[in-house]
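Re-run with default settings, no changes from the original entry. Doing this only to confirm the output is reproducible before filing.
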Amino acid sequence: MTKQTLQVEGMSCQHCVISIEGALKEIGAAGKVNLASGTVDVEYEENRVSIEAVKEAIEEQGYDVV
C-alpha cells in the first residue's frame, strides 16, 4: 500500500471532502481530506491505481493538485 500526501487547492467545505473522498473511493483508492492544511492523504495500491489516476480523480471534481 502506497501512502502519499497531496497539496490540493480550492477545498473549503464538507462538500469538498465528500466529493474528493468519494471520487478516490470510486477508483480504488482511499483518501482523507484535511481542509485546514489543504491536503489529501491518499492510500492506494500501485499495481491497481496510478498516482496520475489519483490526481485526475481529484481534478475532475474541480480542484487543483499542486
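DSSP finds two helices and four strands in the chain. The longest helix spans residues 14-26.
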